[in-house]
Give the backbone structure.
Amino acid sequence: MRIGIIAHLKHPIAEPFAGGLEMHTHLLARSLRDRGHAVTLFASSRSQPGINLEAICAETAIQTVGTTEASDVPFFREHHAYLSLMTDLRHRDFDIIHNNSLHYLPVAMADSLPMPMVTTLHTPPFCWLESGIRLCTARSHSFVAVSRSVAALWNHVTHSDAVIWNGIDLQKFAFHPQPAVDPYLVWYGRIVPEKGLHLAIEAARRVGLPLKIAGPILDDNYYRTEIAPALSQDVAHVGHLTHEQLAHLVGGARAFLCTPMWDEPYGLVVAEALACGVPVAAFARGAIPEILDSKCGVLAVPEDVTSLANAVLAALALDRSACRTRAEQMCDADRMVDNYEALYLRQIARAAPTVCSEKTASIHLMPSTRLPHSASSASSAFLG
């Protein structure tokens, strides 16, 4: 298949990944290419070129500089990039487009494309994307949710045609049957308020184990006021790590703390910890209860530090091999790609009669001329 993947433009699709969406997009593009498909990734300019990148814009992440004008520039740059791309795709020879952008324009303009499109819903509803989805009238368009939780959150706006759980490369997050000799807990992800790192720090202190933190600082004010003052000999931020470095860090931990303060759409960090054999203590938010079971994780009351500390203590007693087994069952990238391939083929097959019908209609000699009844009947018989 000839597959175009539209990425979001806030961060490059390259290691070290800014977050789960960047990692997911890279993994999907690479896996489809490795299966022999012709994949083109439409992403920001600093994305990894080895996956047939077509750069459509520089990164558009808004820096906190305190002026309205500074935030307007990335907004319009992003808007123009997607508008230009969707106009260009009308004349491109793809079999299907996979929209991973989280932007309103690709989905709102899906009906202008000659090929079908799949849009993956990676987040709970927010106003801009919800507006674009409400305007989507393309008959050959399909919505996919990354969890049952996300599907339910979007149900008042649109029906999800499928739920395809995100997957990870289980080889890159290898099983660690034994933790590091010196015990520690781990937290990693984007360092922003909604990820709740400050609560993980407090819970680790109550448990009495060191906490190692990894991830990019994407909210300077939050890090400066909430996190940096809490760092100590037993609470260390080790930086923004590559896949290999991260797998080593996570695999050595006694437990992973997951502390979302929003409805986590999926939680790739949970999948990665389980793949390494690390039990999870997590707030019961969003899709996390779909991933964890009693053999690999313990759920805590959201935003309750005492409950989280108790969950950590319980998680320390869980079997590491059961964690890996759960990851193999729920979080394998091969399963995810199998499901997307099957969906692509269904969408292409579903769109084929529409394309044939439009081509047949275009051979009218004059706009006002109607086909004779016999010709119309023959055409209908041919299209089935």
Remarks:
- The CA atoms of residues 230 and 381 lie 72 Å apart.
- The longest helix spans residues 333-361.
